[in-house]
UniProtKB/TrEMBL annotation:
Catalytic function, reaction form: a myo-inositol phosphate + H2O = myo-inositol + phosphate
The enzyme's E.C. designation: 3.1.3.25
Annotated protein name in UniProt: Inositol-1-monophosphatase
One Pfam family recorded for the sequence: Inositol_P
Molecular function via GO: inositol monophosphate 1-phosphatase activity; metal ion binding
PANTHER family for the chain: INOSITOL MONOPHOSPHATASE, INOSITOL-1-MONOPHOSPHATASE-RELATED
Gene that encodes the chain: suhB_3
Family: Belongs to the inositol monophosphatase superfamily.
Length: 265
């Protein structure tokens, strides 16, 4: 079994390279429509290429899965890198400083490593299974808030969701129960915020594997819990995630989300 710390060093280098590309492109890119309210830029592609080249140069037999069409079979290797070169694209387009590079590593179908880099704050979140999570090499942990009325939460909403969408109902219902619920535009940084205790919970039912892979490892290694919104086993290939600082808050939120999901009479 290869030393995951070597992979971590490569992932951090790749994330910084991707972040550097994003900042070099900032204010100079051309945006094009990918889907309504979901912009992609040339910076996205350039960042992904920088990340891919950094990792591929060290591990040519590994597989890759990325947002911008990156898909490389890992052959006989059990390793696959799951990459989002720019999580928070709309924020980036508008120069709202809440976006990041996200790099996860899967070994034989299990998430084992996560790195998320916020280039605007020069914050590097890192985690390897069984070794804890760090922010700029300092250990981090989830918050200790246990009561939902004291909890700060984040939620992702589907693009241009109808007012009757279950995600909208959940959002509005939880505003009444939590201290506050925010929508920020970067799932990766929301997961990091849970991991370092800045917020207590984040949920979504509209994410892709590259939005979640790295952050899930970081939350778990910081002492948090990741399940589906109905408290079932999480899969990075299913768009259903709830990440919290742990029990008993996790149970309170799953119960509240389930109630809000029921159709209104």
């Amino acid at each position: 079994m290869k030393d995951l710390s070597q992979f971590l060093s490569t992932a951090e280098e790749a994330a910084r390279n991707g972040g550097r590309v994003l900042e070099e492109w900032a204010g100079k890119f051309t945006a094009r429509e990918k889907s309504p309210a979901n912009l992609v830029t040339e910076a996205d592609l350039a960042s992904e290429q920088a990340i891919f080249e950094t990792i591929r140069s060290r591990y040519p037999d590994h597989g890759f899965l990325g947002e911008e069409g990156l898909s490389e079979d890992q052959g006989d290797s059990p390793y696959r890198w799951i990459i989002d070169p720019l999580d928070g694209t709309s924020n980036y387009v508008h120069r709202f400083p809440y976006y990041a590079v996200s790099i996860g590593l899967e070994r034989a179908g299990e998430l084992v490593l996560g790195v998320i880099y916020d280039p605007t704050r020069d914050e590097m979140y890192s985690a390897v299974t069984g070794e804890g999570a760090t922010l700029n090499q300092r250990k981090i942990s989830v918050s200790t808030i246990a009561d939902l009325p004291q909890a700060m939460c984040m939620a992702s909403l589907p693009i241009k969701a109808d007012r009757d969408d279950v995600a909208i109902r959940r959002f509005l219902d939880m505003i009444q129960k939590a201290q506050t619920v925010q929508r920020t535009g970067s799932a990766a940084l929301n997961l990091c915020a849970v991991a370092c205790g800045r917020i207590e919970a984040f949920w979504s039912t509209s994410l892709k594997p590259w939005d979640m892979a790295a952050g899930v490892v970081i939350v778990r290694e910081a002492g948090g819990i990741v399940t589906t919104c109905s408290d079932e086993n999480f899969s990075v290939y299913e768009p259903n995630l709830l990440a919290t600082n742990g029990a008993p808050l996790h149970q309170s939120i799953t119960e509240a989300l389930c109630v809000a999901s029921k159709p209104t009479e």
